[in-house]
Design a protein that fits this description.
Elements: E1 2-7, H1 10-25, E2 29-34, H2 45-50, E3 58-59, H3 67-85, E4 89-93, H4 97-108, E5 113-116, H5 128-139, E6 142-145, H6 148-156, E7 164-166, H7 170-177, H8 179-182, H9 187-191, E8 198-202, H10 206-209, H11 212-225, E9 230-234, H12 237-245, E10 256-259, H13 264-273, E11 276-279, H14 282-290, E12 295-297, H15 305-309, E13 313-315, H16 321-330, H17 347-356
Parallel strand pairs: 1-2, 1-4, 2-3, 4-5, 5-6, 6-7, 8-9, 8-11, 9-10, 11-12, 12-13
Length: 369
């Protein structure tokens, strides 16, 4: 069997690692296509190198651009690739433009689509990722849902039950798979950090970085919290550009340490040893939970509602610096309830087995042969 995997962004590289390993064990011929959505070395190549991932067979080198321009370029480039490869299934991950383009390109060519991380909903269509999820789920043949909540969302939207499989979360697999390797990271020494004596922050979503008021509140909140705890902030390229253009990244106190984007192993080590994690990333929210570290999410909503229910995560919309600083400092040493909403660490195996049986799944669209 031949599977064509479409990836293009940092979290997809991490998720693809365990799944590619599971597909290889089953003897599946996998072709990996990198769209080039994330192309900076610190956002792309480092993950293939340090996680020993199979290098992409094809790199489309699409690069950045508006949502329409970027997605359109991916579609145009994927069409001949899929036509030439003749895969039995196209595998897509998550909720990026690469996800949407991979699913659409395959559907147009009548190739079955399997979507990892199906069924996530923020119930806010102003978020670009929400549109990508909704479209990808509606046209995918096999919806690989990480949680029971995701399954319920799909059923509520009328997706036939036989097209849905709850697999668990493959990011939990990755945390287990690479956990011991991350212990070798020297990031704490490099940054002069003491475990449980710092806050780790990440910010990358457009609704935060492209809004001066929200980004200003975030910077002010981190500065406020840094009066009591050092803040380590690996800065996404989009965020760094926004900080510069809005004149927000200058004159920060020495207790707010900006770094370049970090690889997965360094991030995992920083997450494990932080006293609080502050983020607008879905993946980092879950990694905080895996590391049993309290999290403050700088958004109005989250797809990972299980973390709110268990008490490991709180939402803090970035509208007030004081509220953000207060939320960060109040979360120190806080713990949530125990639970296993993201499975048992065998999601990749379930995904690989399901993909090999994709031909048995009723097609997403009636009339397909």
């Amino acid at each position: 069997m031949r599977v064509l995997t479409v990836i293009g962004a940092r979290p997809q590289f991490i998720k693809a690692g365990p799944v590619s390993a599971a597909l290889k064990k089953l003897g599946v011929d996998e072709i990996i296509v990198h769209t080039g959505q994330h192309y900076d070395c610190s956002m792309s190549q480092i993950f293939f190198d340090e996680l020993h991932l199979k290098p992409p067979d094809i790199n489309l080198n699409v690069g950045s651009g508006s949502h329409g321009v970027q997605t359109g370029a991916m579609l145009a480039a994927l069409d001949p690739v899929i036509t030439s490869a003749k895969p039995d299934c196209v595998l897509v991950f998550g909720d990026t433009n690469s996800t949407l383009a991979g699913a659409l390109a395959a559907v147009k060519l009548h190739i079955p689509v399997a979507h990892v991380e199906a069924g996530l909903r923020a119930f806010n269509r102003a978020i670009p990722e929400e549109i990508n999820r909704l479209v990808a789920d509606s046209i995918s043949d096999l919806l690989l849902a990480p949680t029971e909540t995701a399954v319920k969302n799909l059923l509520a939207e009328g997706i036939p039950e036989q097209r849905i499989l709850r697999t668990g979360d493959v990011m939990f697999d990755a945390a287990i798979m690479y956990g011991e390797l991350a212990l070798r990271s020297a990031i704490l020494d490099r940054l002069g950090l003491v475990p449980q004596q710092y806050v780790l922050a990440t910010v990358h979503r457009a609704d935060n970085t492209d809004n001066a008021a929200r980004l200003g509140a975030i910077v002010g909140g981190l500065v406020g919290a840094s009066a009591k705890l050092k803040v380590i902030w690996p800065v996404h390229p989009r965020t760094r550009k926004a900080l510069s253009s809005m004149d927000l990244g200058f004159h920060l106190p020495r207790t707010v340490v900006l770094t370049e984007p970090l690889g997965y192993l360094d991030m995992l080590q920083l997450e494990r040893n932080a006293t609080v994690i502050v983020t607008d990333s879905g993946g980092v929210q879950k990694e905080a939970f895996f590391c049993e570290v309290p999290c403050v999410t700088l958004r109005d909503e989250t797809e990972w509602t299980e973390l709110i229910g268990l008490g490991w995560n709180v939402l803090c919309p970035p509208v007030s610096s004081e509220a953000i600083a207060g939320a960060i400092l109040s979360r120190r040493l806080q713990r949530g309830l125990s639970g296993t909403p993201y499975g048992d660490g065998n999601a990749a195996h379930r995904i690989a087995e399901a993909v090999t049986n994709v031909a048995r799944v009723p097609p997403a669209l009636p009339g397909w042969q």
